[in-house]
Amino acid sequence: MSIPAAKKSSIGYWVAAAVVVLVAYDIYTRVKEPAAGAGAYKILPARTSPAVDSPEGDQLFAGYIKSYSVVTYAGFVSMNSASLPPDKRHRLANLLGQRSLEGALLTRQRIREKSTEKRQKSLPTDAAIAKEFGDELLAALQRFERTLPQRSRLQPLIQVLIYDRDELSVTQLETLVDGLQSTVAAPLRVDAPIADVDRAMAVGREGNDRVLAEASGYLSPTQFARLRELIEAENEYQKYFRFRRAQPVALSP
To answer: Which burial class, exposed, middle or buried, applies to 213 when counting CB atoms under 10 A from its CB (0-12, 13-18, 19+)?
Structure first.
């Protein structure tokens, strides 16, 4: 089964938009620091932002997060649209927007409080989603979120296959996404020793080998060749990354 190029292009758009949301929110929350006097805030590098934490600022922030959640989760809603009437799809999109805002506000609060506690795994809106749409859909949503990094990683492959006129089917894409989860090691600390970097890279290489071995059975020759090119490029980047991490840090005098 193959899906139209236009729809496949939109899959890449959804993933890219998710990355935009994360990066933009990271900038919003992490570059802000107290300015001198009157509890004002300064947005780096040297610009005073009026009333970022005012009701108007909070309202704009909420609108921004909810609007981008529509783009971020459009793929998920489409994946489940066959079993949902239009009014239910609209309701699900609204709940996902509210859920995104809940998560963003919790993250913002944790950053401001410099909290080291792990973020809770569930959000208040999860209960409403499970009640209205069932536990199975909530589990599918959580899987979709966990695999956003893998979907982003496949963006170059999705794009080039459009031009090759050999697009991935939905089934092929989801199978690849599942396989790529096995290539991810535990997160590394910024100051992790080079031995930990080597172990993480070994996990990635072994996972990539499994993905390629399995993908040869369900991808076309063109699709498989493009996937191998992508993984080889990533391997080359990791070699350079490892080289950079192994170099001694030059301290300023």
So the answer is: exposed
- List b or e across 8-42, with b for residues whose CB sees 16 or more CB atoms inside 10 angstroms: bebbbebbebbeebbeebeebbeebeeeeeeeeeb
Coil, helix or strand for 154? coil
Six-digit token string for 51: 């009333």
> Maximum distance among all alpha carbons in the chain?
66
Contact 182, 210 (CB under 8 A): yes
Cβ pair 141, 103 in contact under 8 A: no
pLDDT digits (tens, 9 = 90+) for 3-60: 444 444 444 444 444 444 444 444 344 333 333 333 333 333 434 444 556 788 888 8
Alpha helices in the chain (DSSP H): 5-30, 55-72, 74-79, 86-112, 124-133, 135-146, 148-153, 155-163, 170-180, 194-215, 221-246
DSSP 182: G
Rg (Cα) of the chain, in Å, rounded?
21
Contact 126, 98 (CB under 8 A): no
| Residue boundaries of the structural domains of the chain | 1-146, 153-253
